[in-house]
Design a protein that fits this description.
single chain, 38 strands, disordered C terminus
């Protein structure tokens, strides 16, 4: 286009004056314009096509993206479905066992061999002694002289092999050879027949016969398989192939009792797949048309949980011991304690689960029951015969413990320490006592390296050496011989601090609860108080701990966790805070003497003693208090004195009577009253200051839950099985307790009342110490441990002869007086 513009500008300027030249130039110009037009049109066309291609491409890409996204979504869903399908559901048997096991899920042994079941019958190589069957496809190979082979094949093209099939009549037809009987004939025999028939006609060739596709035949697979019915097998199919063709054995089916029935002679053979799965042994069975395989229901099962090399649920037969089952499971793991095995099972007679401990020597003599679980306990996996050293040293680690081992056997010299070691104190952490508490033993490394100290080590000791940058302090003071600064260790407790300090004071310091040893006075730390002051940015806190609570009662609630900068003062218990105790005895989990806390009640004291045992009888609770005992003694002495005064007064009244009968009655009365006084004295002497607590429904009511005072005692008896009957009955005794039986029942069963019984005053002393009078002999509800008391009739004896005589005189005197009055 720029060339055309230049050319036109030349024309306008008149540079081409010749007309002929102008004509020629016009022609050139026309041609140029045409060329430019076609070029422009082509360019537009190409641009249009390009734009359409871009649009089509974008549209395709968009659709492709959508398609890819849909494909990805479908793929994800398929993967999720595959994962869900890949997680097989637990069978009923597996659910039963796994609901009681805390270990990993265990499954039935051996059934995973059928997870890929349902595939067609496999084809394997056929041996030369294999006997051909109808339907077998055979390859016949020829090689040698070309002309002979061509003659046999009957074709202009040489065929090195011929495929033939055993027909329904059991023959093989081989071109150039003819019909050969093949059914029930071995491959080697067929090969020899072909060779023999051809050697008479041809020479210089060889023959090879092989079965490349055995014919299929049907058998029946029945019972507990996933797809029971007819399956088609071939001559190379195994017993396992037949089960796989039927979908595999169900988990409700047996792997140890699979019956093979020969279709020809109906003989039976039992197959045990455990022989194959565990021992690699398999019975040689050649399956034939018409055979039957029957999978029976699963037999007895036992679970061998974690502890064996192959934990699973195993099917077992009668006569197989626990030891043989452990062998099936690959034996015990090395970490298992063979001397501690537990057998869990069902006791059908009592309809409950039981657990039995079994020694390793018994495993071969014990035979399990259906549903048992054999559980194993790991050997203690912590080495106890070691000591270790750690911290700011060059070679931290563990060392084998040997008897008499000392710190110098582990820490050889000062060269073993790293730079900036805190040499004033290291720590030995030691496992101590039945409770396996950790105690801290301080060691001065300065004294150690000088040879002044070399503590003996114990198994499991842990030696900690600290860097000087790690060390912080705690200040200690009071009734100790080493007041001052104690290095602080992270996690240090009050017990750790008590183990470090020495509770001694100079002998010239007077302290009652102590004893002199040498020139020092040993302090009884149970009667000391620790006052721990913690200081932080906000405030200062003081905590008081009675060492009796911490050490004697071993109450870890008071084992304070200390912080760097704390101050600990050890002082005696002040008079005003003298130790107050309560004794809790009988059927509680931890009987003993306990410190009385402010506001502590009877129920709190029982809880402090660990609570009630299973055999405890809370209704029989005996609660005694020393102050009550003193009050009761005073009242009882006063009562006895009054009884004796009353007795003396009544005897004087009898003596005023002048007749012998009255004197005899007075003597009997005095003797009876004296016996009653003696009984009362004996009864009072047994009084221990008991406060009766009326407990109903095995609960202490809020009103009866008294606050504990110093010296109180609580005794919880065991559940009694009897009721006592004493007093005026023919046979005082204890009788077995029967619920809902009345007072009348028990009295009748001890012979009934005596003549002296005062039936109107029968009362019952309850096990809790309260007394209830029986208004009606059957009205009182009895509890175990109650005592029925039938009192004796006691009163002034009556001398009837004297009364009659005195009455007669009175009557005569009265009549005389009346007579005299009426007369006048």
């Amino acid at each position: 286009m720029q060339g055309l513009y230049c050319l036109l500008s030349f024309i306008r300027l008149g540079k081409y004056e010749n007309r002929n030249s102008m004509k020629r130039l016009n022609k050139v110009l026309v041609w140029l314009l045409l060329i430019q037009f076609f070029a422009t049109s082509t360019s537009f066309a190409q641009m249009g096509n390009t734009n359409y291609e871009v649009i089509d491409s974008r549209q395709y890409n968009y659709q492709s993206d959508l398609s890819n996204k849909n494909t990805e979504t479908k793929s994800q869903l398929q993967q999720q479905n595959q994962l869900q399908q890949a997680q097989p559901k637990l069978s009923t048997i597996e659910k039963l066992f796994n609901q009681d096991l805390n270990s990993q899920v265990i499954k039935q042994f051996g059934y995973e061999i059928f997870e890929n079941s349902g595939s067609s019958a496999s084809i394997s190589s056929v041996p030369v002694n294999y006997k051909l069957r109808i339907g077998d496809r055979v390859n016949v190979y020829f090689w040698g002289d070309t002309i002979d082979i061509l003659s046999i094949a009957g074709n202009s093209v040489i065929q090195p092999s011929i495929d033939v099939t055993v027909d329904k009549e059991g023959n093989l037809f081989i071109p150039g050879v003819g019909l050969i009987p093949a059914k029930d004939t071995t491959v080697a025999s067929i090969e020899q027949q072909i060779y023999s028939m051809l050697t008479s006609k041809f020479s210089g060739f060889k023959v090879k016969v092989s079965v490349y596709e055995p014919g299929n035949f049907p058998i029946m697979v029945m019972g507990n398989v996933k797809q029971p019915g007819v399956v088609n097998l071939n001559s190379s199919s195994s017993f396992l192939d037949a089960l796989n063709q039927a979908g595999g054995v169900q988990k409700e089916g047996s792997l140890r009792e699979i019956v093979y029935i020969n279709g020809a002679n109906k003989s039976k053979l039992t197959m045990d797949l455990y022989d194959l799965l565990i021992r690699g042994q398999q019975k040689n069975i050649s399956l034939k048309e018409g055979d039957v395989i029957l999978v029976k229901p699963i037999g007895k099962v036992i679970a061998l949980s974690e502890g064996v090399k192959k934990p699973a649920i195993y099917e077992f037969k009668n006569g197989e011991s626990l030891q043989s089952l452990i062998t099936m499971a690959g034996g015990l793991l090395p970490s298992i304690n063979a001397a501690n095995v537990q057998l869990e099972g069902f006791d059908k007679s009592n309809n409950q689960k039981i657990t039995k401990d079994i020694n390793a020597a018994e495993l071969s003599t014990i035979f399990p029951n259906d549903g048992d679980v054999l559980a194993f306990k790991s050997a203690y996996n912590f080495s106890e015969n070691v000591v270790s050293i750690e911290g700011n040293i060059k070679h931290p680690g563990s060392f084998q413990y040997q008897k008499g081992m000392k710190l110098s056997d582990v820490l050889k010299s000062q060269d073993d320490l790293l730079a900036k070691t805190f040499i004033y104190q290291a720590v030995i952490e030691r496992v101590y006592g039945v409770d396996k508490d950790i105690v801290t033993i301080p060691v001065s490394l300065v004294d150690f390296f000088k040879g002044l100290t070399d503590p003996e080590l114990a198994p499991q000791d842990k030696i900690k050496v600290y860097a000087s940058t790690q060390m912080k302090n705690i200040e200690v003071s009071g009734y100790i011989s080493n007041p001052g600064i104690i290095p602080y260790v992270e996690g240090m407790t009050l017990k750790d601090l008590i183990a470090i300090v020495d509770f001694e004071i100079p002998s010239d310091v007077n302290y009652v609860d102590s004893k002199i040893v040498g020139n020092m006075r040993k302090v009884n730390i149970n009667n000391l108080v620790a006052e721990v002051t913690s200081k932080n940015k906000d405030n200062q806190k003081l905590k008081t701990v009675y060492l009796y609570d911490l050490l004697t009662k071993n109450n870890n609630e008071y084992n304070l966790v200390l912080e760097a900068g704390d101050k600990a003062l050890f002082r005696p218990v002040a008079d005003k805070e003298s130790l107050r105790t309560v004794k809790v005895l009988g059927y509680v989990k931890s009987p003993g003497v306990y410190k009385v806390r402010p506001g502590m009640k009877i129920s709190d004291a029982i809880e402090t003693a660990g609570g009630l045992n299973d055999d405890a009888y809370i209704k029989g609770l005996v609660f005694t208090r020393p102050t009550i005992y003193k009050q009761q003694q005073a009242m009882q002495e006063e009562s006895i004195t009054k009884m004796r005064e009353d007795l003396a007064q009544k005897i004087n009244q009898f003596q005023a009577l002048d007749k012998g009968a009255a004197k005899v009655d007075a003597k009997e009365f005095a003797h009876a009253q004296e016996e009653l006084i003696k009984i009362s004295e004996k009864k009072y002497s047994e009084t221990q200051g008991r406060i009766a607590i009326n407990i109903k429904d095995d609960q202490i009511s809020e009103s009866d839950d008294l606050e504990i005072k110093d010296g109180d005692e609580i005794f919880i008896p065991s559940i009694p099985q009897h009721v006592n009957v004493i007093g005026e009955v023919h046979n005082q005794s204890a009788m077995a307790y029967y619920p809902n039986k009345s007072v009348k029942y028990y009295i009748e069963n001890v012979g009934g009342f005596t003549k002296e019984a005062k039936k109107s005053d029968i009362y019952v002393v309850k096990a809790n110490g309260t007394s209830v009078k029986a208004k009606r002999i059957s009205s009182i509800k009895l509890d175990p441990g109650d005592t029925i008391i039938v009192p004796r009739k006691v009163g002034m004896p009556i001398s009837w002869s004297s009364i009659i005589k005195d009455g007669f005189h009175m009557m005569v005197n009265s009549l005389s007086a009346v007579f005299m009055i009426t007369r006048f």
